[in-house]
């Protein structure tokens, strides 16, 4: 077999060599210009695919950071709002204690009514707080309109009972602000388990100042009545109206019956009744309305004064439960804020790790790239020189 070396073949080889060298230089130039060693997926298909996956993870972390910022803003507004409500409840407690003074003048009581009504209005405004984007903090997931409104003098809740879960880190979720129904509406009465109230028709001056479980666990959760047969004697009446026991009361002592402890000041009259029942729920606005109504009562007789004081004492217990609810809600929000801090640390650590991995995959080693570029440039110059010299060579020169 004869191998034929022709002028055309030599030209084609030289041109191919120069084109390949130029292509390599162009690729190196793009790498140097972008700072990335993966200009296109064909440069390193495996690394390119992995890098796309890491980019998606970083984008997901950015979205989680945005979520965290939004929920942190809402939880911060909730914390500020609950702190304000706590201060309001403290002021209501002060006013109610002061109002328990039987010698208080009517003008003073009217001043208290005016202040409590102002606090009620401020409380409604706080309950309808927004997060700065037009969304209502205490509306649950139905937060596009004010969650609380006043209808026929009563405050009603228009939001829902749902609480959002927001992803703020890989497999890490925090709860958004509490729905307003859990903060302002469903507040237990009494001591949180048992409650009591004076009957409306009482004629004596007995005032129920405290009711609580006895602590021995003997209360069965059923309602009953303590009915006085004299100022210092009473009988226990079950829910069916049957007298089940009797007892006597000494001034300053508690009445302990059926696992419930009652403290009654003043002098009950024969026939006066105090009803004991499981705690129910009441909204904070209803509690304020009850206090306002009590302060507006006529107190011209000792029995009327006692009726007013019984209502005020009941209001005090309900305000205490509302204050506890504010504390519990703030604690819940604080726990979520702590989780946000932990999630931020985790996101930051993950971002550093992912960016370091991406750098190893993509970032160009400039020293190596410039060295290769210079090598290819030298090779191209040599090929160009060789090609220019070869142009003057011909087999005809040998024959001539």
Topology:
Layout: H1 7-34, H2 45-99, H3 106-127, E1 148-151, E2 154-157, E3 165-169, E4 172-175, H4 180-185, E5 187-188, E6 194-198, E7 207-213, E8 224-230, E9 233-238, E10 243-248, E11 254-257, E12 260-265, E13 273-278, E14 281-282, H5 284-295, H6 302-362, H7 366-390, H8 395-399
Antiparallel strand pairs: 1-2, 3-4, 5-14, 6-13, 7-12, 8-9, 8-13, 9-10, 11-12
Helix pairs in contact: 1-7, 2-3, 2-6, 3-5, 5-6
In a nutshell, what does this entry contain?
This protein is α+β, with helices and mostly antiparallel strands and 400 residues long. It has helices at 7-34, 45-99, 106-127, 180-185, 284-295, 302-362, 366-390, 395-399, and strands spanning 148-151, 154-157, 165-169, 172-175, 187-188, 194-198, 207-213, 224-230, 233-238, 243-248, 254-257, 260-265, 273-278, 281-282. The protein contains 8 helices and 14 strands.
Instruction: Say what the CATH topology of the domain at 54-189 and 318-351 is.
Output: f41 fragment of flagellin, N-terminal domain
Counting DSSP E segments of at least 2 residues, the number of strands comes to: 14
Largest sheet: 5 strands, antiparallel
Rg (CA only): 41 Å
Global shape: rod-shaped
The CATH homologous superfamily name of the domain at 54-189 and 318-351 equals f41 fragment of flagellin, N-terminal domain
The order of strands across the largest sheet is 6-13-8-9-10
| Count of alpha and pi helical runs | 8
What is the subunit organization of this protein?
A: single chain
Q: Please report the distance between the alpha carbons of the first and last residues.
A: 28 Å
Pfam families: Flagellin_C, Flagellin_N
InterPro entries: Flagell_FlgL, Flagellin, Flagellin_C, Flagellin_N
Domain Flagellin N-terminal: 5-141
Subcellular location: Bacterial flagellum; Secreted
